[in-house]
Design a protein that fits this description.
The complex is a heterodimer of chains A (about 140) and B (about 500). Chain A is α/β, with parallel strands linked by helices and about 140 residues long. Chain A is built from 5 helices and 5 strands. Chain A has one domain (about 5-145): 3-Layer(aba) Sandwich (Rossmann fold), CATH 3.40.50. In chain A, about 50% of the residues lie in helices and about 20% in strands. In chain A, strand 1, helix 1 and strand 2 form a beta-alpha-beta unit. Chain B is an all-alpha fold. Chain B is globular. In chain B, strand 1 and strand 2 form a beta hairpin. Chain B has 21 helices and 4 strands. In chain B, the strands form 2 sheets. Chain B has a two-stranded antiparallel sheet with strand order 1-2. Classes of the chains: A alpha/beta (about 140), B mainly alpha (about 500).
Chain lengths: ~140, ~500
Amino acid sequence: MTTETYVVAYEGDDDDSKTLDYAMASAKKAGAKIYLVHILEWSPYSFLTPTEIEERTMRRKEELARAKEVIIDPALAKVTAAGLEAEGVIKYGSVVELVAETATSVGASMIFVGRSGSNSISSRVFGSVPLGLAQIAPVPTVIVP
Amino acid sequence: MNFKSAFLAAPGLAFLASAAQASIDETINTAVGAATGPFVSFIFSPFPGTSFPWIVMWLVIAATIFTLYFGFIQFRAFPHSIALVAGKYSDPNDAGEVSHFQALATALSGTVGLGNIAGVAVAVSIGGPGATFWMILAGLMGMASKFTECTLGVKYRNEYENGTVSGGPMYYLSKGLSAQGKAGLGKVLAILFSIFCVLGSLGGGNMFQANQAHAQITNIVGDYPGWITGVIFAAIVFAVIVGGLQSIAQVTEKIVPLMAVIYCGAALIIILMNIDKLGWAFGQIFSGAFTGLGIAGGLVGALIQGFKRAAFSNEAGVGSAAIAHSAVKTKEPITEGFVSLLEPFIDTVVICTMTALVIVITGVMTIDPDTGLYVWDEAAGRIATVDNASGVALTSAAFGSTISWFPFILAIAVILFAFSTMISWSYYGLKAWTYMFGEGKSKELTFKVIFCIFVVIGAAMNLGPVIDFSDAAIFAMALVNIFGLYFLMPIVKAELTSYLSRLKSGEIKKFA
């Protein structure tokens, strides 16, 4: 009987695989369900060339299909193989905002996020995903090193 | 002029090369001039007894009719347009698709350019400060033309199975008029539009830009053969449009808005530094608009210059923006019309006015201390200026008089604006080309290669008649486009009425 939902911010790299393992272990203990969130970074205020504008719908379809096939589906398979209930979603926008938003909309009790990338220069200047979540997450958030 | 100085200065081989080039120029000029002369003089011919080109009147009358027909939509819908651009009505589930903001920014980068910098200087120095008033008025009216054409651009676009879209006047002219039982007329107008669009894209959207960019570069680094600039520019354009190196264009698309912001910022700083003169400057603009301030052309001169500048700068009614706007993700074509009406506002009412204010406030146009009126330079046919500057040089002098290093930034801005205008027009030309010859890799490549060759020709040669012809072609686009718009405007009206009533009833709702 699933009672809780754990949201996992999932980019699909090696560090995230560790994050997912940790979230799965925790979910098993708590009998929780895993909800994978994969965000394709996108700003409606970025600048595009006329050709990019024309091809945008096509590219978006391709990007979504690729993210589903290469990132979300294998991860979902891994979670369900471990005997856990799992769902996944792919969204466009700002990672931090959308992970927090999804956590609220699915009524999650916890967010799991990897620390990956938080050592780069740009993340030090502009803030990384875990740092951003630390500020706006609506529920307790686990940062997996 | 460039050729003369190069001719005199270059020894040996360069002498022969420039002599040969000059003769090639002459040959082409004579040939093209003879063939296209009647068409060019027809498009730009003035009303009898005036110097007012009828094509400018054609654009202004259309803008006025659309303004009245849609009940001053540009003012009524202005706040809603801002809300649309801010994404307040965008479905979050459509994230990752082209936003209204992106369509607007891309269309703007095709229109903001040399006209805003050089053209305004020409208008104000010939028509006096009063030209600014008429320019703003024409800009405000032009918003209704953009609204009409861009709504139709989205409504009648072609959406293909793979998700790509093609739109623009050629599609709404043929499909829209065919739905009204005028298929033949629609087809003829669409083909005419496409022909003019291809010619305009190669000329005003390409050769003219390459030519002006080269002129700017030689201003900084000194004179050198134009084909070098041409080949470099052509290589970059080739990498973008043929090689698919969109990253280069993306960089430009990012820098161009930044440049526009820096330009307006610098203008604002200059205006604030001279805030005590702002009231006087507006006084000059208003009184000049109705009295001419003793300038040779008087009221009519100011009006012609102002209208002309607005029409040349924001391209409202030309139909080019409808091509750029048609790819946006929206279920309501009218929303793109609302968004596009911001374009003449930003281009003409904001940016062009900034340029005009800086030129008036900084006093680079000579005023007679006794009469308080501008000194007319009979020989140059305009107001006397500091260092006898005109065009870009006058704007540059005005900014430079307060911010000494700004002319360098301005030169870079002109080059980047030229590049982004070329990228936009290469796309407009390509869409018209594929409309006529069909879509397909080899057909597209043919146009793209031709486009790149014309970059080199434009930068290397001083082809007055060719450029005149391409300018005429851009305005011929407006001739065909507006003619079609008169038939199609009831369709836009129906869309508008339906949308506004659903907005009022709450059926169309805000997401944010």
